Amino acid sequence: MSLNIQVVAGPRCEILDIVIRWPGSAHDSRIFNNSAVHMRFEQGLLNGLLLGDSAYQQTMYLFTPVPNPITRAEILYNSAHIRTRNVVERTFGIWKSRFRCLSSCLQYKLQNTTRIIAATAVLHNIAISEREANVDEVYVDQVVPMPPAVADQVRGNAIRAAFINRHFNVHVV
User: Fold this and answer.
1) Rounded mean pLDDT of the chain?
2) How buried is residue 62: exposed, middle or buried, by Cβ count under 10 Å (0-12/13-18/19+)?
3) How far is residue 140's CA from residue 138's CA, in Å, rounded to a whole number?
4) Which helix (H) or strand (E) holds 159?
């Protein structure tokens, strides 16, 4: 049996949230829609934005790439989205290189396998914390509190479009 692991990674490649209970055949969006992070965003307990790939539905707090970008702003947005989302791939790479057992099939009972994955995630975060204790924190200059999210594709697309217009359109003065 394979597992599909969902990770929310932070800017220093730390693991902020992890879900280790779905079979490999589970779709990423199904895992997310049943996760504690999703519920906390929906209840308005978390503010900010998440970046996901095209497997996810665009919402008010989960930004996905623009399918078939046309405008220069949409192309720039997709490019920035890919570069920023790369932290997730780097997190998995660092985590797997730090704990080589994660790069191969774990031959244990499912319960022990999930415990090993969770333990290595905690140890990964401790290693980052110890090695980067003096690194300045990355702050967002303007945090916009998000209202309780309703998984509404139309509203999510409008929010993404406004975000693209605000941050990626080149304004000539």
Assistant:
1) 83
2) buried
3) 7
4) helix 153-168
Could you write out the DSSP letters of every residue in 94-144?
Answer: HHHHHSGGGGS---S-HHHHHHHHHHHHHHHHHHHHHHTTTSPPP--S---
Q: Which residue has the tokens 């970008």?
A: 69
Residue 154's pLDDT is what?
Answer: 60
Q: Is the pLDDT of residue 168 over 90?
A: no
Give the SS3 label for residue 173: coil
Q: What 3 state SS string does 28-88 have?
A: HHHHHHCCHHHHHHHCCCCCCCEECCCCCCCCCCEECCCCCCCCHHHHHHHHHHHHHHHHH
Higher-scoring residue by pLDDT: 172, 164: 164
Whether the pLDDT of residue 15 is over 80: the answer is yes
Q: How far apart are CA 99 and CA 94, in angstroms?
A: 9
Distance CA 3, CA 100 (A): 17
Q: How far apart are the first and last CA of the chain?
A: 58
More confident residue, 124 or 145: 124
Strands 50-51 and 62-63: parallel
